[in-house]
Design goal:
Strand order of the largest sheet of chain A: 1-2-6-3-7-8-11-12
Radius of gyration of chain B: 29 Å
Number of domains of chain A: 1
Helix content of chain A: 40-55%
Number of strands of chain B: 0
Number of helices of chain A: 14
Order of helices and strands of chain B: HHHHHHHHHH
Distance between the termini of chain A: 66 Å
Largest sheet of chain B: none
Structural class of chain A: alpha/beta
Number of domains of chain B: 3
Oligomer: heterodimer
CATH superfamily of chain A: Alpha/Beta hydrolase fold, catalytic domain
Shape of chain B: elongated
Radius of gyration of chain A: 22 Å
CATH class of chain A: Alpha Beta
Shape of chain A: globular
Number of helices of chain B: 10
Chain lengths: ~350, ~300
């Protein structure tokens, strides 16, 4: 039997329709203008070096809970959590009466190359937590760590348990050496010392090439071809461009932190093994006795569920819950189902008021 | 963003050009015009009016549109081979055409496909290597007789040049090996695509569009890439490429530092020392501030 059922006229119609859409799309893209990112009003309340701590303005009557501090990854920019009005984790939390703070790490430059994980966890993050505690009069605040920021938040809560009331982590790696983790396989063979000694900071472009390499056919080709399907919808097109901006808006990574993260996490899996030390103190996740909420994405290709799920067995708390989001590492913020996440967080916090 | 439903004035002319190409292509004539203008020609329509946040997307759309139509052209050859107009299905010809597809996809992979794997990955590595060598000016030249022990007044400089030459060679070798791995992935992708096409021949759901065929190609490509990328060989080749690039950059940095020192210009090493000293001072000040805070608390009534 013939494997194809494509008549000449159908083929002609298909390629002409594609060409027409592509032409219209390129024309439309040129008229989109500069896309805006970050939709909720916020005020800077503390800054230090490249870091800025923001407090979002309320959108609803206060739910009367302790404030939430969002600790995002150093990789990519934190506006992903507040990308646009209908795709905003922050907005979802604000609408439920929560008081939301966000750390923007900024863009590290050559002067930041010697910043270590300890500087981020016991330095910047600790001072932001203290700022939020002081501003709100809360002894213990709620900490929401995202991706690498989740790993930092786990370290922080283990070392400063007296300051955190509830810990939430999203798409956060704990076991860095599971078989599905392609990034980890690649990272284990990398000579991080040589990279950092030579490059100083590690460029965001280099990281982007690595991330795109994880699914090269889909991420560097198919998604642009599929763009023809949404080209006639200005809103979807704008969303697409906004997402492109976020993907490629990648800060460089402070060299020492990169070195330590690759070696200690990916190569030695110290958090999982309980051998991580910061400022001479062991990071023992058993010290985390507050309630913990672990949100992971079932189709995450960057932080596979297998990297997040083992957290349960490492903690000292009996109050541990999970939320398995049906989607990927990015979809958890911007897909149609993403609104489930702030709702799940608000419900979980409400049950622990 | 404003609503804008009318077609741009050049669109009809462009589609007409496409129509001319594809009508000839579908009827088996050799087309005289290209499938579409390249990014440079296309951008002439817009001049400098493309906003920064859109220009990269429109460039990428053009590249991949060009690649997609190129793939469609190759697929059409397959369609014709499977059952030439008015003739029954010819399995042997289909197989032959699949072999040709392997050749064209493997050989001209990056160009044909709009650079899914080849260009984006390889050119990123190449760019990094070029940055390392071009900034060196003449420093990247090979020594006149590599391998011979350097002698005399310029001995140290000669030795440094030799090291640089060796690092450049190592990088080129690593780049070539990584390129071979990527080429193997594209070959495997075509094998997987062939198996999928054959499966459709034996099933009851024939492939009904170029887009469906393209999606099969992407699935095949991702499978082939995942099979390779999870293997130890790939990770090692990638790591070697990274290491070789770092060695090349390190040798370059040595030369630049030497040059800067000779002109009494600040070097990266000196700046690093200063940053470290400032970091130590900042920590010391912070400790003292905390001590003062504690003392104040102790004195409070």
């Amino acid at each position: 039997m013939n494997p194809f059922n494509i008549a000449g006229q159908d083929a002609l119609n298909e390629v002409l329709e594609f060409s027409r859409k592509l032409g219209r799309g390129i024309d439309a893209v040129t008229r989109v203008g500069e896309v805006q990112v970050g939709c909720s009003d916020k005020d800077p309340v503390y800054s230090e070096d490249k870091l800025t701590l923001y407090r979002y303005r309320p959108l609803a009557e206060s739910a009367g809970r302790a404030p939430i501090l969002l600790c995002y990854a150093l990789v990519n920019r934190p506006y992903m959590v507040d990308l646009q009005e209908d795709r905003s984790l922050v907005r979802g939390l604000l609408e439920r009466g929560l008081d939301v703070y966000l750390i923007d790490w900024g863009y590290p430059d050559g002067a930041d190359r010697f910043l270590e994980i300890d500087d981020y966890v016991n330095g910047y993050l600790d001072r932001c937590v203290d700022q939020v505690r002081k501003a709100t009069g809360s002894d213990r605040i709620n900490l929401l760590g995202i991706c690498q920021g989740g790993t930092f938040s786990l370290c922080y809560t283990a070392l400063h348990p007296e300051k955190i009331g509830n810990l939430m982590v999203m798409v956060t790696p704990v076991d860095f050496q599971t078989p599905e983790n392609l990034l980890s396989k690649w990272a284990r063979d990398i000579d991080a010392d040589k990279m950092v000694d030579t490059m100083g900071n590690v460029s965001g472009d280099l990281l982007n090439v690595t991330f795109l390499s994880l699914m090269p056919f889909r991420l560097t080709s198919q998604k642009y071809v599929a763009l023809a399907d949404i080209i006639d919808d200005p809103k979807q097109l704008e969303n697409f461009i906004r997402m492109e901006k976020w993907i490629f808006d990648s800060p460089d990574q402070a060299g020492e932190t990169f070195r330590q993260f690759i070696k200690w996490m990916f190569q030695e899996n110290r958090l999982m093994k309980g051998t991580l030390e910061l400022r001479g103190k062991r990071v023992d996740l058993k010290s985390i006795r507050c309630p913990v909420f672990n949100v992971y994405a079932t189709q995450d290709h960057l932080v596979p569920p297998s990297a997040s799920i083992p957290l349960e067995g490492l903690l000292g708390t009996d109050d541990y819950s999970t939320f398995a989001f049906k989607g990927g590492h990015i979809g958890i913020y911007v897909s149609g189902r993403a609104k489930q996440v702030p709702q799940a967080i608000a419900d979980w916090l409400a049950a622990r008021a | 963003m404003s609503e804008h439903n009318s077609n741009p004035p050049w669109l009809d002319a462009w589609v007409s050009m496409q129509q001319d190409f594809w009508q000839k292509m579908l009827s088996g004539q050799a087309p005289a015009v290209p499938t579409m203008p390249g990014p440079a020609q296309f951008m002439q329509f817009f001049g400098g009016s493309v906003p920064d946040s859109s220009s990269d997307v429109s460039r990428k759309m053009l590249e991949f549109g060009e690649g997609y139509l190129g793939v469609a052209r190759e697929f059409w050859k397959l369609v014709q081979a499977a059952a030439p107009a008015g003739a029954p299905t010819d399995a042997q010809r289909l197989q032959q055409e699949l072999e040709k597809l392997r050749h064209s996809f493997t050989e001209g992979f990056a160009k044909l496909y709009g650079a899914p794997l080849g260009a984006d990955l390889m050119s990123a590595w190449q760019r990094m290597g070029e940055a390392a060598t071009s900034a060196m000016g003449g420093a990247g030249r090979q020594p006149s007789i590599p391998g011979l022990p350097p002698l005399g007044l310029t001995r140290e400089k000669q030795e440094a040049m030799e090291q640089l030459g060796r690092a450049a060679l190592r990088y080129q070798q690593a780049l070539a090996k990584f390129g071979e791995l990527l080429a193997r992935v594209s070959g495997d992708a075509v094998d997987r695509l062939s198996r999928r096409v054959v499966k459709h021949a034996s099933g009851d759901a024939p492939i009904g569009s170029f887009r469906a065929m393209y999606d099969l190609w992407v699935e095949s490509g991702e499978e082939a890439f995942a099979a390779a990328a999870h293997g130890a060989d790939f990770a090692k080749a990638q790591a070697e490429l990274n290491d070789a690039l770092m060695e090349l950059r390190a040798e370059q940095q040595k030369q630049v530092e030497e040059w800067a020192r000779s002109l009494d210009l600040p070097t990266r090493s000196e700046i690093n020392s200063l940053i470290k000293r400032i970091g130590t001072l900042k920590n010391r000040v912070r400790e003292m501030e905390e001590e003062i805070e504690q003392l104040k608390k102790g004195r409070a009534p």
